[in-house]
Amino acid sequence: MKTPGVVLLLLWSGLVVVAAESGRTNLQDEATVAATTQEKSKPDIHTALREMSALIAEQRVELRYTKTQMEAMETRLRASEDEIMNLQKRNEESKVSFSVSLEPNTNRYTGPFNTGTTLVYKHIITNIGNAYNSNTGFFTAPVKGVYDFSFYIYGQGNSNHMGAHLRRKGTNLVMAYTVLDRGFINSSNGVSVLLEVGDVVDVFLPANHRILDNTNHHSTFRGHLLFHV
Question: A Pfam family matched by this chain, by name (predicted)?
Answer without folding.
Answer: C1q
